[in-house]
């Protein structure tokens, strides 16, 4: 589906956006040009892929119709050091000319059978390797854990990892079980980074699917939040994954949360815009480095569409807003604070190919993204679009602060704990069935407890509220605390006496302007006490 925002007209309080949609599919099995129209000054793919593989099978096992082999192959000779790569290769027993993909582990982890089994059960031949890190089963011993560039990109650890992945594709090509014309690549986090990189580097790859991970990291990331200008200029045309994509026609997809600090929205959006081939984007609002199970599945359905002839994905054009007489996500505030800004949902009315959505006439700029969820609950997103009501001549503004920065977890109900906090790995106190509202609260132990992260708009006053209860009267202390561009910032403290009846805590705080920010409530409980907390809210309140 193609979304085009073509009508934007003002009423006293609301702007109406007319989105005209045209069904359009991404062609499966799109192929890149045989020869890139540019010279890659870092990766000499022809030279790197014509060295001997010296491949061998170390061990073979069979279980439930899946054959798994421990394999080794030669990657490169770095000076006097021979670099050999250990991997797991799996496929259905007896398979021939199968579609295949390389899976790149998240966190630079060692290879395991989890994703090789998953892929083989879907009918693929799959290879997952140990990158040549120190202490791994591959040789090389490189410290591939940051954005080190050095004086020579060909000596950077990321370079040697990429060479190992070039030869991983060569290894798949060498197997009789594999159709060499249907090889893809996928990965999570660092694996998504390398997937994005290799789709630009290696024209033999016919599809890429990144579960997090992107390029344009010179714009900022958890590894380099304030990159040096000289480094940025060299990085973005050497080892950054994005810049080669404009020369590639290979289908590429990215699946990520809007709050991801490792691969922030500016980097994702710039990389998506750069890609020259068919592309897909899924944004999961208010999630960071995690996806729901159905979106995990969609990562591989994208490969099915490109490599197995499965139904093609819908494709979107960016939203275009012009002034004239399924759902949308919206986040208040100008660019920045990507990790902690709050995303709200706005419903769109669909009539045939036309969608109508209502946007607030807000006193601050905001970002929007259109989204469609299909019958399989797969999500299709448009790139972010910035909207500034003032640019359309607005004079009256709605007090459009209609979000709750704790709404995803603040009631500690089953669906919030198991559906949001646990999948993201966000710590939370033990659950109690004694609740202020609903069925659950959490129990705070003596000492300091940091509650899950809050979402907010910077430079806007917010009101933090919660309800507390104790078995016997006890005085607790509440404070908001966070990091704002590397500086620790704390609110005033509030003391309240918790007792047998639920009692409200209230605290007002204005998060300062920052590009990188996080904020949480910290509750201190005296020794020998136990306190329940429930109904946590963090509401914007721009009035003084």
Short key terms for the protein model shown above:
544 residues; alpha+beta; Immunoglobulin-like; Rossmann fold; Jelly Rolls; 3 domains; nine-stranded mixed β-sheet; 8 helices; globular; disordered N terminus
Which helices and strands appear, and what pairs or packs with what?
Elements: E1 2-10, E2 14-22, H1 45-49, E3 56-63, E4 66-78, E5 81-92, E6 98-104, H2 113-121, E7 125-129, H3 157-174, E8 178-188, H4 190-201, E9 208-211, H5 229-235, E10 252-257, H6 265-274, E11 279-284, H7 293-307, E12 327-332, E13 344-351, E14 354-360, E15 366-373, E16 379-381, E17 385-387, H8 414-424, E18 431-432, E19 441-444, E20 447-450, E21 462-470, E22 474-484, E23 487-490, E24 494-498, E25 503-509, E26 517-525, E27 531-540
Parallel strand pairs: 6-7, 6-8, 8-9, 9-10, 10-11
Antiparallel strand pairs: 1-2, 2-14, 3-4, 4-5, 5-7, 12-13, 12-15, 13-14, 15-16, 15-17, 18-19, 19-27, 20-26, 21-25, 21-27, 22-23, 22-24, 22-26
Architecture overview:
The chain has 544 residues and is α+β, with helices and mostly antiparallel strands. Helix content is 16%, strand content 35%. It has helices spanning 45-49, 113-121, 157-174, 190-201, 229-235, 265-274, 293-307, 414-424, and strands spanning 2-10, 14-22, 56-63, 66-78, 81-92, 98-104, 125-129, 178-188, 208-211, 252-257, 279-284, 327-332, 344-351, 354-360, 366-373, 379-381, 385-387, 431-432, 441-444, 447-450, 462-470, 474-484, 487-490, 494-498, 503-509, 517-525, 531-540. It has a 9-stranded mixed beta sheet with strand order 3-4-5-7-6-8-9-10-11, with helices on both faces. Strand 4 (66-78) and strand 5 (81-92) form a beta hairpin. The longest helix has 18 residues, at 157-174. The protein is globular and about 75 Å long.
């Amino acid at each position: 589906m193609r979304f085009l925002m073509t009508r934007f007209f003002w009423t006293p309080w609301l702007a109406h956006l007319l989105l005209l949609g045209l069904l359009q599919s991404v062609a499966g099995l799109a192929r890149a040009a045989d020869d890139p129209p540019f010279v890659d000054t870092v990766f000499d793919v022809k030279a790197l892929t014509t060295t001997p593989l010296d491949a061998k099978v170390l061990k073979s096992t069979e279980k439930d119709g899946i054959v798994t082999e421990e394999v080794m192959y030669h990657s490169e000779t770095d000076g006097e050091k021979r670099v050999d790569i250990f991997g797991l290769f799996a496929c259905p027993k007896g398979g021939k000319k199968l579609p295949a993909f390389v899976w790149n582990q998240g966190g630079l982890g060692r290879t395991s059978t989890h994703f090789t089994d998953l892929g083989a059960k879907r009918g693929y031949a799959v290879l997952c390797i140990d990158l040549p890190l120190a202490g791994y089963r591959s040789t090389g011993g490189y410290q591939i854990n940051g954005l080190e560039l050095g004086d020579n990109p060909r000596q950077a650890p990321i370079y040697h990892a990429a060479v190992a992945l070039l030869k991983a594709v060569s290894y798949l090509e060498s197997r009789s079980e594999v159709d060499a014309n249907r090889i893809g690549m996928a990965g999570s986090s660092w694996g998504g980074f390398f997937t994005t990189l290799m789709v630009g580097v290696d024209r033999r790859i016919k599809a890429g699917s990144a579960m997090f991970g992107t390029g344009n990291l010179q714009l900022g990331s958890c590894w380099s939040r304030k990159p040096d200008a000289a480094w940025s200029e060299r990085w973005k045309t050497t080892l950054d994954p994005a810049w080669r994509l404009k020369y590639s026609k290979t289908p590429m997809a990215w699946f990520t949360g809007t709050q991801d600090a490792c691969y922030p929205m500016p980097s994702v959006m710039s990389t998506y815009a750069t890609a020259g081939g068919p592309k897909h984007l899924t944004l999961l609002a208010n999630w960071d480095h995690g996806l729901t199970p159905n979106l995990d599945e969609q990562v591989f359905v994208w490969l099915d569409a490109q490599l197995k002839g499965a139904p093609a994905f819908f494709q979107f054009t960016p939203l275009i807003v012009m002034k004239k007489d399924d759902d949308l996500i919206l986040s208040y505030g100008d660019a920045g604070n990507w990790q902690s800004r709050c995303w709200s949902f706005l419903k769109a009315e669909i009539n045939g190919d036309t969608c109508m959505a209502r946007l607030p006439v807000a006193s601050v700029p905001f970002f929007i993204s259109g989204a469609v969820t299909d019958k399989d609950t797969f999500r299709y997103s448009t790139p972010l679009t910035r909207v500034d009501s003032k640019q359309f001549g607005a004079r009256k503004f709605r007090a459009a602060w209609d979000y709750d920065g704790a709404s995803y977890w603040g009631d500690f109900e089953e669906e919030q704990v198991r559906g949001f906090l646990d999948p993201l790995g966000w710590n939370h106190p033990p659950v109690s069935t004694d609740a202020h509202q609903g069925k659950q609260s959490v129990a705070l132990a003596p000492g300091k407890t940091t509650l899950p992260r809050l979402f907010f708009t910077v430079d806007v006053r917010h009101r933090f509220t919660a309800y507390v209860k104790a078995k016997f009267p006890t005085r607790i202390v509440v404070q908001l605390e966070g990091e704002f561009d590397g500086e620790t910032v704390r609110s005033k403290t509030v003391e309240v006496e918790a007792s047998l009846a639920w009692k409200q805590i209230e605290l007002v705080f204005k998060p300062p302007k920052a590009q990188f920010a996080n904020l949480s409530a910290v509750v201190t409980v005296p020794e020998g006490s136990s306190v329940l907390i429930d109904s946590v809210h963090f509401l914007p309140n721009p009035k003084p």
